[in-house]
């Protein structure tokens, strides 16, 4: 079976990487960000760096968490009005996902347009700066749509760890665990290759070692750089290998209850590993060997394959406890009865999610529902 690996994004990484923005050959730039990037002055700093090189610049700062179809439409109109030759996404996953969709739609609408897409992440989590993925929300239907298109792969990613130093503890925790989940799911994906495994296994070891320390010491630039690079490496991996049902379930959960994406992954991942590895089954299934290999890469080893994966799950739960993430959905502001009532619809959306296609074990709707129920006290 033929497989391929592509890497379409140029990456510049390191302290003061942001200054390289002045070396780009651009005439007119649209900066896409959220209002906080204006409040903290970072958007204006980039604007000034560009203006110093006589580059015209307009800021679109209406990005919200879980960007909606309406927000993307406004951003597209801003691009059409400006006719830029560069679009800069500044911020976390929401800004980058929105910018990727806006850029793709702009290129489609303006068929002669040539525009560079440059991503400058200010959080370490989504890896969106190097992927063909974007997630857009539809509040009316309580849905999140995972979009995948090679035309959305950014041209340039600028990874400056200085930009992440001010990220609060809770955001560092959530986005960092998103990185861990990206690695875990890319490694277990049915589309994984030796090349994606190399990126995801390295990133997995980096984030496993450095996430708790960076949460506790957010001003440590060396740690911030490691976690920032791990996030990008994980993005390189899952952009090619795709993901699995942990993300499918998290997308539906976030769309329904607006829980942060990384937090949703953290709640679900131990249960998803147990399910995907078939730990509840009498016989061993092929994906058990995959999770045993992942466990060994993190230093877990026991007498049998199942015991080794059990040990890894226990280790993940210990790390979640260190990160102060409760395993119960009711501890995250969600009513148990509302959650139970929403499970059938969420499970149906998760089943239709593109990430489900590459999950190592093919689930039924009932199995997805049961995974959600594991988040309640007693597990139902």
UniProtKB/TrEMBL annotation:
It comes from the Bacteria. Residues 9-161 form the Alcohol dehydrogenase iron-type/glycerol dehydrogenase GldA domain. Pfam families: ADH_Fe_C (PF25137), Fe-ADH (PF00465). SUPFAM superfamilies: Dehydroquinate synthase-like (SSF56796). CDD domains: PDD. Keywords: Oxidoreductase. This is Alcohol dehydrogenase. It comes from Enterococcus plantarum. The lineage of its organism: Bacteria, Bacillati, Bacillota, Bacilli, Lactobacillales.
């Amino acid at each position: 079976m033929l497989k391929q690996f592509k890497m379409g994004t140029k990456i510049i990484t390191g302290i003061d990487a942001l200054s390289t923005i002045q070396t780009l050959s651009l005439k007119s730039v649209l900066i896409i960000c959220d209002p906080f990037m204006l409040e903290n002055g970072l958007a204006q700093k980039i604007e000034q760096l560009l203006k110093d090189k006589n580059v015209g610049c307009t800021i679109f700062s209406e990005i919200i968490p879980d960007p909606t179809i309406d927000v993307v439409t406004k951003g597209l109109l801003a691009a059409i009005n400006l006719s830029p030759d560069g679009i800069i996404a500044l911020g976390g996953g929401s800004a980058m996902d929105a910018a990727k969709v806006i850029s793709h739609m702009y290129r489609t609408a303006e068929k002669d347009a040539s525009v560079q897409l440059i991503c400058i992440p200010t959080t370490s989590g989504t890896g969106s700066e190097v992927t063909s993925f974007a997630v857009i929300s539809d509040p009316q239907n309580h849905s999140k749509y995972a979009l995948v298109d090679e035309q959305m792969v950014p041209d340039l990613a600028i990874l400056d760890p200085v930009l992440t130093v001010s990220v609060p503890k809770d955001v560092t925790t959530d986005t960092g665990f998103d990185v861990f989940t990206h690695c875990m799911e890319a490694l277990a994906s049915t589309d994984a290759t030796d090349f994606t495994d190399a990126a995801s296994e390295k990133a997995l070891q980096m984030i496993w070692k450095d996430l708790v320390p960076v949460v506790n010491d957010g001003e440590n630039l060396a740690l911030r750089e490691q976690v920032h690079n791990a996030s990008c490496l994980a993005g390189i991996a899952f952009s090619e290998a795709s993901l699995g049902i942990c993300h499918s379930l998290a997308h539906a959960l976030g769309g329904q209850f607006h829980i942060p994406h990384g937090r949703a992954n953290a709640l679900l991942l131990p249960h998803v590993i147990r399910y995907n590895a078939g730990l509840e089954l009498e016989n061993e299934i092929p994906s058990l060997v995959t999770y045993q290999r992942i466990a060994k890469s993190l230093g877990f080893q026991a007498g049998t394959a199942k015991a080794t994966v059990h040990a890894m799950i226990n280790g993940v739960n210990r790390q979640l406890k260190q990160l102060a993430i409760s395993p119960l959905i009711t501890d995250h502001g969600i009513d148990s009865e509302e959650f139970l009532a929403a499970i059938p619809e969420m499970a149906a959306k998760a089943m239709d999610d593109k990430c489900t296609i590459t999950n190592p074990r093919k689930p039924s709707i009932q199995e997805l529902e049961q995974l959600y129920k594991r988040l309640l006290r007693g597990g139902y």
